[in-house]
Amino acid sequence: MVSGVGGTGSNSSANALTSLAASNSFVSQNTFLTLLITQLKNQDPLNPQDSSQFVSQLAQFSSLQQMTQVSKGMEQVLENTVPNLIGRTVTVADSTNSNGYVQGVVSGVVYYADGPAITINGTNYPLSAVQNVS
Fold first, then answer.
1. Are 109 and 130 in contact (CB under 8 A)?
2. Do 70 and 42 sit in the same domain of this protein?
3. pTM over 0.70
4. What's the rounded Cα separation, in Å, for the pair 134 and 118?
5. Residues 16 and 67 in one domain
6. What range does the domain containing 17 cover?
7. Cβ neighbours of residue 132 under 8 Å, at least 6 residues apart?
8. Which site in 4, 48, 80, 125 is 20 to 30 Å from 22, CA atoms measured?
9. Distance of CA 40 to the CA centre of its chain
10. For residues 94 and 102, is the Cβ–Cβ distance under 8 A?
11. In terms of domains, do 90 and 106 share one?
């Protein structure tokens, strides 16, 4: 994503940030901005960064922001539709069952920090385990 920090002098913090970004498959918005600012601070004034590279990095940041907004929007839509499953018959994946799945009527919804879960036969299943709704 970021090609590195240009310039001269001691920039160990910039190198640390660059290796942090390279080691993670997902770079947060704050990390991206920190890298970009560090890159701009440490560039050689007589040989500045290519403007097309800078524009490319800004476009990547814009894409990251848009993907984050879409993801948050999808989570909200999903969480708002979960209560509609109450009273519906669903099939959920369950590796502890001999069939590999459980079928039953959703009797409730539980919200955990990592997302909603549905209650079937007294057991909570994450929404990601739902395979079929009828």
1. no
2. yes
3. no
4. 15
5. yes
6. 12-78
7. 90, 91
8. 48
9. 27
10. yes
11. yes
